[in-house]
Design goal:
The protein has helices at about 5-15, 25-30, 35-50, 95-110, 125-135, and strands at about 50-55, 65-70, 80-85, 90, 120. The protein is α+β, with helices and mostly antiparallel strands. Helix 1 (about 5-15) crosses helix 3 (about 35-50). The longest helix is centred in the first third of the chain and has 13 residues, at about 35-50.
Length: about 150
């Protein structure tokens, strides 16, 4: 990282205090005492230094970037599972990961960059919440009592 500034320290402190949440540059700008360009440059420098992790939302054109404090320093060799509903970030550092990575290498000759790998989906809590909502909403069922395709 380049040099430390008061604004960069404040932005890093903000991310550490909200470690489980993701923020866009504009959201951080509204929370700290620094100009938007300063916030952008600081976030880019903190990301380049490995202190923040970048995520994108949306596909193709119009993607929005979000940043989160990277608390993975002590365990860099794992991938992340990210819930698209609530934003939860799950650190997948179980032994099964070695099997997956070994398969990619031996069968496909492909070495995965774990530090940049994120799998998007829906966490168990959000799936359960959606299921409860579906059961409680009588309009989501057809005449046979089966859920309709949406």
């Amino acid at each position: 990282m380049q040099y430390r500034t008061k604004q960069r320290d404040e932005i890093l402190r903000f991310f550490r205090e909200h470690g489980e949440q993701c923020f866009s540059v504009k959201e951080v700008y509204r929370q700290v005492d620094a100009g938007e360009a300063t916030v952008f440059r600081a976030i880019m420098a903190l990301t380049d230094a490995g202190l923040l992790r970048k995520f994108t939302a949306g596909g193709g054109r119009g993607e929005c970037a979000y940043y989160q404090y990277d608390s993975c320093g002590a365990r860099p060799d794992h991938i992340h599972l990210r819930c698209e509903e609530c934003g939860e970030l799950i650190h997948m550092d179980c032994s099964f990961l070695e099997t997956i990575l070994g398969h990619f290498m031996s069968e496909h000759g492909f070495a995965v960059d774990c530090g940049r790998t994120v799998i998007y989906g829906t966490c168990a809590s959000c799936r359960e919440k959606a299921e409860r909502t579906k059961r409680a909403d009588p309009d989501s069922r057809d005449a046979d009592g089966e859920g309709e395709e949406r």
